[in-house]
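Notebook entry, structure prediction.
Reason for the run: the old model in the group folder had no record of what sequence produced it. Starting over properly, with the input documented here first.
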Amino acid sequence: FYITQLDFRKQIESQLSASMTLMEIDRDTLLLDFYKLESKEVSVSPNINLNPAQNYLVDGELSIEPALVFITGPKEELDRVNAVSTSEVELNEISEDFSIIVKLVLPEELKNSELSEKEVRISGNVYRFSEKVIEIPVEVINLPVGTQIKTFPSTLEVLCKARIGQLKDISPLDFKIVANFQEQRENNKKLQVSLIEQPRDVYSVQLLKNEVEFILKRQ
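New structure, fully documented this time:
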């Protein structure tokens, strides 16, 4: 599309004050590029590095408001993007809940597009965790018929990391450690053990030893 010098001269002069005069225009035709605008909803990807203080953890997923934004621009540009990132942020020694405003970054290749939002709010919950060591009995399964087994040790320790309040309610009954005798190798006097049951919604559970010795007796 183009505009003749006469047309755009009138438009320019109409925006000048009475004390100003347009003397000359260095081109006789103004060429303009036009394109159809479309809108596309995309997700927001937080570019944030979180470093909690010692014995603290970020609880679950971060909250992003809004989590979805619109990009408006030419279709060929919108087809290249499915998400937009925030500017890079680093939070160190976090020991409490946080909520920050972060700017959105429009990808450089989107020359003719714009975002519906300039920034988003990112929030997160932070909690303090503690540790607890719990002794759990070892259960042997799939023993040969007519045999009895004794393991050494008969219990194993599990290291559990969770909220302080959660640890108070956790007991050995929440765990189950088993050794499958069918997986025992010939002439090997040790059995591998597995933790097959544990509480949900705790940060981590670690079995501190993964094998036991045993004596097998015929009844």
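Summary: The chain has three domains: 2-31, 37-128, 129-218.
The old model has been moved to the deprecated folder.
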